Amino acid sequence: MKTMRLLSMGLLAVCLSVTSCSPEDGKDGLPGAQGPQGEQGIQGPQGEQGPQGEAGQDGADGQDGANGEGFDELTQYGHITMTLQGTRPDGEPFEDTSSFKFTALEAEDLESSNLVVTSQEGDNSYHEFNIQRFLTAPDDVFNETTIFFYLNISNLGTDLEDYEPGSYFEITQYGVIGADNKFFIMNDYYQFNQPGVSDLEYTNLVWDDATNHLTFSYSFMVTAASNDSGHELTVSGDVDVFLLELIQP
User: Per residue of the chain (249 residues), what is the pLDDT tens digit?
Assistant: First the structure.
């Protein structure tokens, strides 16, 4: 009995020591040193290219540059356009258009290439138009491609208006260049009212006496034997020029 009591008291003491004597938690320790960085992984495969984007809008055109020195002076008296329609010497059909807008300004050239002469004979008046224009800026050696229009019109602006015999059209050193990089040369003189030239028409002719401004459209046919293409040729175009009058003592 005494032994049982002693065991009970001992067990009680153990329980009390467990519940009342448990130690408190300690403070966190310092962080440990950072470990070394791991190796980089293998690069993945490249992705597929995406679709091409739509093209952007065209930018605005830039401003035209200033004309070169002398350009305005050489072009101030207007131009003549010329269209040739026919067949080349090699049998290929062609159409060629150019604008001749340069005037020779040397005094002796003005007298023959940019001149109007008026006269009166009885009841009839006459206007003689001498018009030469260069394809490029004129000089004495290389740039001598020209067209020359001489037109003598009687009774201009009346019901009796007509062109007089002797009127002619001349082409000098003009190269007709095709898209296939082949060319032939025109050196032709076409006198109206003569064999080889027919169907001359000039339309919408306007002459301003105050400004010497002349405008009209023209067209005519040339036979194969009368032009350097070797085939029938149609010549047409427009004239828009300012002519000069020579002052004589």
Answer: 555 554 555 555 544 454 544 455 566 667 667 767 767 767 778 778 878 878 778 767 756 655 555 678 899 999 999 999 999 999 999 999 999 999 988 888 888 889 999 999 999 999 999 999 999 988 766 678 999 999 999 999 898 988 888 899 999 999 999 999 999 999 999 999 889 999 999 899 999 999 999 999 999 999 999 999 999 999 999 999 999 999 988
- Residue 100's nearest CA partner among 243, 244, 239 is 239
Token reading at 79: 């131009």
> What's the rounded Cα separation, in Å, for the pair 225 and 232?
8
Listed in sequence order, the residues at least 6 apart from 236 whose beta carbon sits closer than 8 Å to its beta carbon are 82, 83, 85, 217, 218, 219, 220
Rounded Cα–Cα distance for residues 248 and 119 (Å): 14
The answer to whether residues 187 and 195 touch, using CB atoms and an 8 Å cutoff, is: no
Dihedral of CA 231/234/237/241: which sign? Answer: positive
C-alpha 86/C-alpha 228 separation (Å) is 11
The residue with tokens 């007089």 is: 164
Q: How far apart are CA 241 and CA 77, in angstroms?
A: 6
Residues whose CB falls within 8 Å of the CB of residue 88, separated by 6 or more in sequence, listed in order:
94, 176, 178, 182, 184, 229, 231
pTM: predicted TM-score of the whole model, two decimal places: 0.70
Residue 76 · residue 101 · CB < 8 Å: no
Strand ranges, E, within the chain = 78-87, 93-100, 114-121, 124-134, 146-154, 162-163, 168-177, 183-191, 197-208, 213-222, 233-242
